[in-house]
Amino acid sequence: MLKLAVKDIVVMVHARFAAEGSVLRETIETSASFEIGLTIESDEPPDKLEKLVRVAHSGCYAEAALRGKAPIRFINTINGRAVA
User: Do 32 and 16 contact (CB within 8 A), yes or no?
Assistant: First the structure.
Protein backbone atom coordinates (compact mmCIF):
# COMPACT_ATOMS: atom_id res chain seq x y z
CA MET A 1 0.00 0.00 0.00
CA LEU A 2 1.22 3.49 -0.83
CA LYS A 3 0.93 6.01 1.98
CA LEU A 4 1.06 9.49 0.52
CA ALA A 5 -0.20 12.81 1.83
CA VAL A 6 -2.76 14.08 -0.65
CA LYS A 7 -4.49 17.46 -0.25
CA ASP A 8 -7.17 16.96 -2.90
CA ILE A 9 -8.19 14.51 -5.62
CA VAL A 10 -10.76 15.25 -8.31
CA VAL A 11 -11.99 12.63 -10.77
CA MET A 12 -14.00 13.72 -13.80
CA VAL A 13 -15.75 11.15 -15.98
CA HIS A 14 -17.31 11.94 -19.34
CA ALA A 15 -19.31 9.09 -20.82
CA ARG A 16 -20.64 9.05 -24.36
CA PHE A 17 -23.27 6.56 -25.46
CA ALA A 18 -24.60 5.96 -28.96
CA ALA A 19 -27.10 3.61 -30.57
CA GLU A 20 -27.88 2.83 -34.18
CA GLY A 21 -30.42 0.55 -35.76
CA SER A 22 -33.79 -0.69 -34.63
CA VAL A 23 -34.90 -2.70 -31.63
CA LEU A 24 -37.96 -3.89 -33.55
CA ARG A 25 -35.85 -5.11 -36.51
CA GLU A 26 -33.22 -6.50 -34.06
CA THR A 27 -30.48 -4.45 -35.71
CA ILE A 28 -29.66 -2.32 -32.67
CA GLU A 29 -25.95 -1.67 -32.10
CA THR A 30 -24.64 0.34 -29.18
CA SER A 31 -21.29 1.86 -28.34
CA ALA A 32 -19.78 3.76 -25.45
CA SER A 33 -16.64 5.74 -24.81
CA PHE A 34 -15.25 7.15 -21.61
CA GLU A 35 -12.83 9.95 -20.80
CA ILE A 36 -11.51 9.94 -17.24
CA GLY A 37 -9.53 12.86 -15.84
CA LEU A 38 -7.63 12.74 -12.55
CA THR A 39 -6.28 15.83 -10.77
CA ILE A 40 -4.16 15.47 -7.63
CA GLU A 41 -2.91 18.20 -5.31
CA SER A 42 -0.04 17.11 -3.07
CA ASP A 43 3.38 18.12 -1.80
CA GLU A 44 4.68 14.57 -2.34
CA PRO A 45 7.44 14.06 -4.94
CA PRO A 46 6.09 13.85 -8.52
CA ASP A 47 7.58 10.38 -9.10
CA LYS A 48 5.65 8.97 -6.11
CA LEU A 49 2.42 10.59 -7.31
CA GLU A 50 2.94 9.21 -10.82
CA LYS A 51 3.40 5.76 -9.29
CA LEU A 52 0.15 6.26 -7.37
CA VAL A 53 -1.67 7.00 -10.65
CA ARG A 54 -0.17 3.94 -12.38
CA VAL A 55 -1.06 1.64 -9.47
CA ALA A 56 -4.57 3.09 -9.24
CA HIS A 57 -5.18 2.33 -12.93
CA SER A 58 -3.72 -1.16 -12.64
CA GLY A 59 -5.78 -2.00 -9.55
CA CYS A 60 -9.14 -0.60 -10.68
CA TYR A 61 -11.77 -3.30 -11.21
CA ALA A 62 -14.09 -0.96 -13.11
CA GLU A 63 -11.32 0.06 -15.49
CA ALA A 64 -10.41 -3.60 -16.08
CA ALA A 65 -14.02 -4.36 -16.97
CA LEU A 66 -14.23 -1.40 -19.37
CA ARG A 67 -11.01 -2.50 -21.07
CA GLY A 68 -12.48 -5.96 -21.63
CA LYS A 69 -10.17 -7.71 -19.16
CA ALA A 70 -13.04 -9.05 -17.07
CA PRO A 71 -15.05 -11.95 -18.43
CA ILE A 72 -18.80 -11.42 -18.50
CA ARG A 73 -21.16 -14.37 -18.30
CA PHE A 74 -24.82 -13.84 -19.08
CA ILE A 75 -27.47 -16.05 -17.53
CA ASN A 76 -30.89 -15.29 -19.00
CA THR A 77 -34.05 -16.95 -17.76
CA ILE A 78 -37.59 -16.36 -19.03
CA ASN A 79 -40.45 -18.04 -17.19
CA GLY A 80 -38.04 -20.50 -15.60
CA ARG A 81 -36.38 -21.51 -18.93
CA ALA A 82 -32.80 -20.64 -19.85
CA VAL A 83 -32.47 -18.61 -23.05
CA ALA A 84 -29.54 -17.29 -25.06
Answer: yes
The 3-state DSSP class for residue 80 equals coil
Residue 82 C-alpha from the chain's centroid: 29
Q: Which of 25, 27, 15 is nearest to 62 (CA)?
A: 15
pTM for this model (two decimals):
0.69
Which option is the CATH number for 8-83: 3.30.565.10, 2.50.20.10, 3.30.300.20, 3.40.50.2300? 3.30.300.20
Check: CB of residue 52 under 8 Å from CB of residue 45. no
pLDDT at residue 44 greater than cutoff 90: yes
